[in-house]
Amino acid sequence: MKQKFIHPPLLLLLILFSTLSAQQTVNNAILDLDKAHYKISRNIYGHFSEHLGRCIYGGFWVGENSSIPNVRGIRSDVVEAMKRIKVPVLRWPGGCFADEYHWMDGIGPRSQRPTMINTNWGGITEDNSFGTHEFLDLCEQIGSAPYFSGNLGSRTIRELSQWVEYVNSDNVSPMTELRKKNGREKPWNVPYWGLGNESWGCGGDMKPQYYSDLARRYGRFMKDFGNTTLNKIAVGPNGNDYNWTDVIMHELGNSIWGLALHYYTWNTGEHATDVTEKSWYNTMHNTLVMEELVTRHSAIMNKYDPGKSVALVVDEWGMWHAVEPGTNPGFLYQQNTLRDALVAGINLNIFNNHCDRVKMAAIAQTVNVLQSLILTKDEKMVLTPTYHVFDMYKVHQDAVMIPISLETDSIDTDQGKIPALHISSSLDKDGKIHITACNLNAEENEKLVCSFNSFTVRSASGQILTSDKLNAHNTFDEPDNVGIKPFDDFKTSENKIEINVPKHSVIAVELTGDLNLKSAEVDFSKLKPGLSFNFYEGELNRLPDFYEIEPKRSGSINNVIYPEGTPANNFGLTYEGYIKIDKEGLYEFYLTSDDGSKLSVDNKEIVLNDGLHAMVEKSGSLFLSEGYHNINISFFQRGGGSGLNLKMKAPGGEKEEVKDGIFFHVEK
Ligand code: AHR
Fold this sequence. Notes:
Layout: E1 2-3, H1 11-20, E2 26-31, E3 46-48, E4 70-71, E5 74-75, H2 76-84, E6 89-92, E7 116-118, E8 124-126, H3 132-142, E9 145-149, H4 157-168, H5 174-181, E10 192-195, H6 208-220, E11 231-234, H7 242-252, E12 258-271, H8 277-304, E13 311-322, H9 338-353, E14 358-364, E15 374-377, E16 380-383, H10 385-393, E17 400-401, E18 404-407, E19 410-413, E20 416-419, E21 421-427, E22 433-439, E23 446-452, E24 455-465, E25 485-487, E26 490-493, E27 496-501, E28 505-515, E29 527-529, E30 531-537, E31 553-557, E32 571-581, E33 585-594, E34 597-601, E35 604-609, E36 616-624, E37 627-637, E38 643-649, E39 655-657, E40 663-666
Parallel strand pairs: 2-23, 3-6, 3-14, 6-9, 9-10, 10-11, 11-12, 12-13, 13-14
Antiparallel strand pairs: 1-19, 2-18, 4-5, 7-8, 15-16, 17-21, 19-20, 21-22, 22-28, 23-27, 24-25, 24-28, 26-27, 29-40, 30-31, 30-32, 32-37, 32-40, 33-36, 33-38, 34-35, 34-37, 38-39
Alpha-L-arabinofuranose binds at residues 50, 94-96, 197-198, 316, 364-365, 370.
């Protein structure tokens, strides 16, 4: 399977070498810590729970009178398992189900709730015993943020706006009175709202232009209550429908928080456990398509949103196999093997590596449906290989992504070449590096050499998920066939780690060490408090190269605020100097502006918030040593609203306005 270019005179030598070296080839990765500043949003590790098959009923919900241990009807074993992997966000109630769902049928005394037919999934009767209160209770028990999919397909604007009011308002209103009557005093503050689901298909068979108009109209009547700003997520493309992304970004790019992308790794001709080498490689190839989709959809989004304000939300992804023999075809129940684990690892690596744009994702689906993390049968519960991957990868949540350049072997498959190794890496708030790697090679181990700039390795530890069999899986009788094991087949040196990644495995390695952080050399005799600033005039649409423009005036200022005499419109500002850091660690910077702005620290671009826009907050992170660091902020204002604000989160601290007294400059 493996393809290599072989220079003829080297052939003999190579044959000799390859027999001696027992098939090992080297894959080289350079981890560029100097360019690490995009945070991997924890929400990439999100999940999806639909009223489909046994996801809700039997999966999460057993009812208060069940003999299965539960808290207010929600099964405790599932909640505990979900808590362990730190589920950050949970999407509900669908899927296709969402565009037929009438949320008011799912509130009030359960015995009086109307029923409906679940036309999408098996035609069964939905008794609505699990509704808004139960789902939000589930989220609170797990500690996840709720993500509601609104019904744009078959219900009214009024109904959706009332749902927002019911869950988020603290005012005196008909909806809040109803909520209180149903037992909930305080609002839940649901932050994420889908404007429909798959409106190009089961959500209404719409064209993108029609959908945009509809989503804009529904979105207009979904109000923010209290401090909760609604993060509205528009229906995005079906896989490679690039035209859909183009139209939606053109029409809605300024008014949405996110754009959804749905892509499944289809394998409906086979059951999950029917894994041959051929189908293994086809699956790997098909799942790697996600890389191309994310890249190309992001490129279209960049056209309309260069500042990357709109999140790409991959809120349905995963393996779609044929259902398990003897189960209801409408229930989408499938087993989950080592192959699914690799699929999970590869997709999570892709999302990590694209975390500048992918800020949320949800695997489909959490329990008993498609690529589940958990399977249940009556009182029994089993964790799948996919669950274990989420467990191994949870260290990436909210860590800073380390860009990697990887040279790897390629493997020939029926559908083209695929890389042998697939990896991602991050730096967590304690300064530890985490590397997760998948070896897609079903036949050979792969040697991976990771080199770091700006990091000296002290120690390493690892975990592995693998098995002798490609179709290894856990069952209710044998729940521990595939599980996480300690892994130590690696060798560290000063700025390197050499890892032997076993064939068909997922590994996670944690490195402790010293970040070779530098601070600026400062001439203290010339140091003055505050930043120096330059003021420019001009009708700007984007941040220019301010060094090419003559400033109208200059001065110093104690914080990132407008200098006195700043006009309302048509100007630019730059701020320059040092920020004094008292404690080494991970710093997060939040730059909010109307219009465009940019923040660099130590000459590294940390936040780019460019373009004409209303007040938009963008953030970036950086490890800083104690001492003084160069800081540079540029900003422009064209017309309309105006503002600039810098906040910071120091290690162990809260996000707060940067204080006067932290900035210094050298008088020129
Ligand atoms: O996850 C199963 C279904 O797949 C969802 O309901 C739908 O959105 C998608 O087509």
